[in-house]
Amino acid sequence: MKTGIIGLPQVGKTSLFRILTKTQFSEHAYSNPREAHVGIAKVPDDRLDRLAALFHPKKLTHASVEYVDVGAIGQEALKESAYLGHLRTVDALAHVVRAFDDPAIPHVGPIDPLRDIKNVDFDLMVSDLGQIEKRLERVEKDLKKMRSADLEKEFDLLKRAKSHLE
Which of 27, 75, 77, 100 is deepest in the core (most CB within 10 A)? Predict the structure, then answer.
């Protein structure tokens, strides 16, 4: 499973990434804010070890989770193809929200986790809506060239998704 860690600037995304993956790197490793960092966390499971002791398999593979630490989210970031590319490759998103007050770590305005969640959700929905509109245009052009049951199904699905996001 591949999980993307997202959130506003200075909320603890990289701290969470480092804790989960036990990764140590310098702050200079983040010189490019649009560069994603990938780490893997092993998921130990005593039940699997007990089964292995009973059945003696040739190979024992524990589960793992791959985490992708992407840069801070925002409307501008969501317009960048590289940023969106990182988000498209993940199976799930872990949204980190700031709920602490620390004068050493700047935050725009008062700390309000609910507002921040709504803002990020809105930015993601606007980005999704833009992607759907682009795909609808292409499918519509393709349908004019050639009718296909698959294209018609996709067109209907995209229309429903668009109306839901609007």
Answer: 77
